[in-house]
Amino acid sequence: MNGDGGQTRDFVHVADVVAANQAAFLHRVPGTFNVGTGVETSLTELYRLVVGACGTDAPQRFGPAKPGEQRRSVLDPSRARTALGLAEVVPLAEGMRATAEWFRLHRAQQGLG
Questions:
Q1: pTM
Q2: φ, ψ of residue 42 in degrees (nearest 5)
C-alpha cells in the first residue's frame, strides 16, 4: 500500500454503476452525476474488508506515498439518487463479499482451485 493507508476513497460496487447507467438511459435526464456511496473509506479499512472476504491473513504492507496523491476523496451522489431514482447502494462489505465469492466460483468453474 502506498502511504500510511489513511487515504480515503468512495468505493462503489459495479452493480451500482450499472444501475446508474441504466437509470440514466431510461430517464434521459441531462447533466453530470456522481455515482458513488457518499461514504469515505480508508485504504486500511478496504484492506481489512478484502482480507476478510478472501479469508486470508496476508499482512498489510506499506510503501512510500505517491507524490501528489489526493488524501481524501468522497462523492456527493444525492443528485443521481434523486434525479435518476436510484435505490440505496450496495454496502462496501457486502459488495466485497459478493465479489470474492464470484471470483471463488469462477476459479472453481475453470478448475483453478
A1: 0.85
A2: -75, 155
